[in-house]
Amino acid sequence: MSDQSDESPALTPEELDHTHLPEQTMYKISMDAASHFEQGGEDIETYPLAITNEFKLLYFEMAPGATIGWHTHTPAFDEVCLSLSGTARFTLEREDGSHQVLEAEPRESVYVPGGARHKIEAVGDERHEGLVAMPSDPVARVEMLEGASPYRMEDWPVALWVDRKRDEVVEKDDDAVST
Fold it and tell me: Who contacts 98 (Cβ-Cβ below 8 Å, separation ≥6)?
């Protein structure tokens, strides 16, 4: 066995020229101070944590028995839902009318493909908490293209919204976000 230094090798060379990069800032978001909106009444609370040009990150809580009803995302709108606590049942409706059903417990995630008609239910006696990563598409649901308006992203109480193309913070909740 060779004698190695306790220091890990640098992942980024020290001589890297940072002049071509925008100013870099990390942000910490406090769930306790973040605002939320309700989907379908008080049983479902959604917290838009971070939005950039590339993705949205949402945290949501569902009371036992609560359901995010049937909806269809646009074809390019894939999402990944990570279960943090409680159990959620994801039901996908196929074109032939058959259903695929998956239950996600804590530390399990479900990939929902773009264009999929699906619903999410909190099952069991425990409140379900989840984290969802999705593209930053202003039209997320096909129903919105057909005139339904379940919500508008512009109305969301976003904790942090960063426009990476213009290198600026569009919206920042100073109570919930710190550097």
Answer: none
